[in-house]
UniProtKB/TrEMBL annotation:
It comes from the Bacteria. It catalyses: L-alanine = D-alanine. Belongs to the alanine racemase family. Residues 239-365 form the Alanine racemase C-terminal domain. This is Alanine racemase. Keywords: Isomerase, Pyridoxal phosphate. Pathway: Amino-acid biosynthesis; D-alanine biosynthesis; D-alanine from L-alanine: step 1/1.
């Protein structure tokens, strides 16, 4: 993006596709067998599926997951034909032909979804590709134990079953006994489907060890730099760099209140900067009086309430004159990553990424080579 264009934006979101691909390769390197997919739902966690998915394809990824059928329809033309694109939500009633037409593979989550896909297979007189999801404890999507016992495997005629999958509830908690319980339940179900390949692990699940890897792992968050294991050093590279422009600076006297509802008041003479990012850019309002920007390695607190389009930073810690109108402050960078922002906001990094929105000047770097 040239400077001329950037001059019309308030902030820049740089997305490092080399770091993304390194993350994918390092996750794959943890597997002793099986393949490493990429979850690119929600526009690749807000970072741009049309850029992210082809970069991962060039790095060697051949299995991609989105949530909605329409996400799959949009992404299908962007990926070469030997990439498989799975729809986690399966198919809404009546959309089966559309799914088939676009060569998308549904994750079948319920008996009615299975039946509808089978009916289409029967009508076309050819088995149709599918993934079967079973519920091992999240109670969210997939056949429960009862439906499974009644339906599987006899009820799977007409399906070319690529994988049977389930999803972990708290894989980021390395020592949660629920991980093992889900693994045992999953294995018990798999004994009824001999020869069918299996998939259980999300990003965090990969770090639970080889027992959890099966034939395909489905990382999302870790690809985008989110820490996969709670309480441990993050082994992933940061993928985003968020920089926002200073709109104005001012010096205020001790006792001056700042921002909407005056939730912050200067306790000493202060220099402050108004920055062109707000909650409409995914810089959550819960970061009011809690977030931080960085300049020259110095952490500078967000003061007062975050507004829709602006936030205010206390820059008193920097030498006078260091920050001027038009300068860039870092709101997320390799040293202060998405997990740190999320911790300040009282949420998870997933929500920070997927909230970023469309107002940034987006700048993609790297991702060309294999
Ligand atoms: C979102 C999702 C993933 C990816 O999870 P991460 O924690 O982001 O790695 C994997 N599988 C399913 C079923 C999902 O919904």
């Amino acid at each position: 993006m040239d400077q001329n264009t950037f001059s019309t934006f308030g902030a820049r979101l740089t997305i490092d596709l080399d770091a993304l691909c390194d993350n994918w390769r390092s996750l794959r390197a943890r597997l002793s067998r099986g393949q490493c997919a990429a979850v690119v739902k929600a526009d690749a966690y807000g970072l741009g599926a049309a850029q992210v998915a082809p970069a991962l394809y060039r790095a060697g990824c051949r299995h991609f997951f989105v949530a909605h059928l329409n996400e799959g329809i949009a992404l299908r033309p962007v990926l070469p034909v030997d990439a498989t694109l799975y729809i986690l939500h399966g198919i809404h009633p009546g959309a089966e032909a559309e799914c088939l037409h676009h060569r998308l593979v549904p994750v079948l989550n319920s008996v009615p979804q299975i039946e509808a896909w089978q009916a289409l297979a029967l009508a076309g007189n050819q088995p149709l590709p599918a993934v079967l999801q079973v519920d091992t404890g999240m109670a969210r999507l997939g056949l429960d134990a009862e439906d499974f016992a009644r339906w599987v495997p006899a009820g799977l005629i007409g399906l070319d079953l690529h994988f049977v999958m389930s999803h972990l509830v708290s894989a980021e908690a390395l020592h949660s006994p629920f991980n093992r319980l889900q693994l045992d339940r999953f294995r018990a179900m798999l004994t009824h489907l001999p020869g069918v390949r299996a998939s259980l692990a999300n990003s965090s699940g990969i770090f639970l060890g080889a027992d959890y890897h099966f034939d395909l792992v489905r990382p999302g968050a870790a690809l985008y730099g989110v820490a996969p294991v709670a309480g441990q050093t993050n082994p992933m590279r940061q993928v985003i760099h968020l920089q926002a422009k200073v709109l104005q600076t001012r010096s205020i006297a001790a006792g001056t209140p700042v921002g909407y509802s005056h939730t912050w008041t200067a306790s000493r003479p202060s220099r402050i900067a108004t920055v062109a990012v707000g909650y409409a850019d995914g810089y959550l309002r819960s970061l009011s009086n809690r977030g931080a920007a960085r300049v020259d390695g110095v952490s500078l607190p967000v003061i007062g309430n975050v507004s829709m389009d602006t936030l205010i930073i206390d820059i008193t810690a920097l030498p006078e004159g260091r920050i001027r109108e038009g300068d860039l402050l870092d709101l997320a960078d390799p040293t202060h990553g998405v997990d740190a922002v999320a911790a300040h906001a009282g949420t998870i990094a997933y929500e920070i990424l997927t909230s970023l929105g469309q107002r940034y000047a987006r700048h993609y770097v790297g991702g060309e080579a294999g």
